[in-house]
UniProtKB/TrEMBL annotation:
Gene3D superfamilies: 2.40.50.450, P-loop containing nucleotide triphosphate hydrolases. GO terms for molecular function: ABC-type ferric iron transporter activity; ATP binding; ATP hydrolysis activity. This is ABC transporter ATP-binding protein. Pfam families: ABC_tran, TOBE_2. One of its GO terms (biological process) is quaternary ammonium group transport. GO terms for cellular component: ATP-binding cassette (ABC) transporter complex. PROSITE patterns: ABC_TRANSPORTER_1, ABC_TRANSPORTER_2. Keywords: ATP-binding, Cell membrane, Ion transport, Iron, Iron transport, Membrane, Nucleotide-binding, Transport. CDD domains: ABC_Carb_Solutes_like.
């Protein structure tokens, strides 16, 4: 069953088209991540779901209730939708407890009990209840903002890049905590982010936007392995994209003969492999030959640029950080899994 249904949403700001025919179904209790470059329309879409913006055309339904269509629009405060903005937006003149309890009924005993329960759920120590927002770390402020949103028992939770201001280690820990908390509560969640790794790890469903349009949606692994076009492939991670000719399920390309995910023949197309699908060896002379021209050490992994012998194309390959070959080394490459044939997509226009 789907909690949220977006149907052909369109939105313009003056002459600028922000959204064009966006339709998406969000399953009940799931985590959907909307990802895309700056200006792709993802934040406009989130604000439209929240009720801060209204579409020019299209409809939006939550749990069977129509929130927006051509005849009416339910205001934001009546939608029972939680919203956590990027900066948390805590009230600076209120304590942690008052921020969390904002909007709760003023019954003294039950209100305090509910605030304590919410603080515990987001792993905030009870001693922090009397602190002011400026006395908290960035991660603590985001937990307070999440607890405040949960206090209203929302039907849907919207997260607008809530982890972007946190350092890398804290961002990962917060993401895991929030995912677990919302899943345990059974709350349908939509996260907007520009961070591809965050999107892939958090989502049950991933939706990619570009120039105000939804270009592809589905399970994160499916989008990573089978992107609809080259732009989507490169946006979701490093990719090796090269021209090829397809014959009987094989691609003839700069890497030699590579199995592909289609049996249709193509005289001229482009294929995609992820860097982890390329295995590198300095001793096994099977496979394609190349030379290491760049070396980027990243700790446990090392990203190498290898120039292929023959056509001279430079491709990315990942290797163990401690065992990566030196610059100038002659290496041999072979592939694992199937290469993905990229479809030719018409250029998108926001108008």
């Amino acid at each position: 069953m789907n909690a949220l249904e977006l149907n052909a949403l369109c939105k313009s700001f003056g002459a600028q088209r922000a959204l064009t025919d966006v339709s998406l179904s969000v399953p009940t209790g799931s985590r959907t991540v909307i990802v895309g470059p700056s200006g792709s329309g993802k934040t406009t879409l989130l604000r439209m779901i929240a009720g801060f913006e209204f579409p020019d055309t299209g409809s939006l339904t939550l749990n069977g209730q129509t929130l927006v269509d051509s005849t009416h629009a339910v205001p934001a405060h009546q939608r029972q939708i939680g919203y956590v903005p990027q900066d948390g937006a805590l009230f600076p003149h209120m304590t942690v407890a008052d921020n969390i309890g904002f909007g709760l009924a003023a019954k003294h005993a039950s209100r305090h009990a509910r605030i304590a329960e919410l603080m515990d759920s987001v792993a905030l120590d009870a001693s922090m209840a009397r602190r002011w927002p400026h006395e908290l770390s960035g991660g603590q402020q985001q937990r307070v903002a999440l607890a405040r949103a949960l206090a209203q028992q929302p039907r849907l939770m919207l997260l607008d890049e809530p982890f972007s201001a946190l350092d890398t280690g804290l961002r990962s820990a917060m993401r895991k905590m929030v995912a677990r908390l919302l899943s345990d509560a059974g709350i349908t969640t939509i996260l907007v982010t520009h961070d591809q790794s965050e999107a892939l790890s958090f989502a049950d469903q991933l939706a990619v936007m570009r120039q105000g349009r939804l270009v592809q949606s589905g399970h994160p692994m499916d989008l990573y392995q089978y992107p609809v076009d080259e732009q989507t492939a490169l946006f979701l991670g490093e990719a090796v994209v090269m021209p090829a000719r397809i014959e009987d399920g094989w691609a003839l390309c700069g890497l030699g003969r590579v199995p592909v995910d289609s049996e249709l023949d193509h005289d001229s197309t482009r294929i995609m492999l992820r860097p982890e699908q390329l295995l590198l060896s300095t001793t096994d002379d099977s496979g394609c030959r190349g030379v290491v021209t760049e070396r980027e050490f990243g700790g446990n992994t090392c990203t190498l640029t290898v120039e292929l012998q023959g056509d001279g194309q430079a491709i990315l390959v990942r290797s163990s950080g401690l065992q990566a070959p030196a610059l100038g080394s002659v290496v041999h490459l072979r592939t694992v899994g199937l290469a993905h044939i990229l479809k030719k997509q018409p250029a998108l226009s926001p108008s």
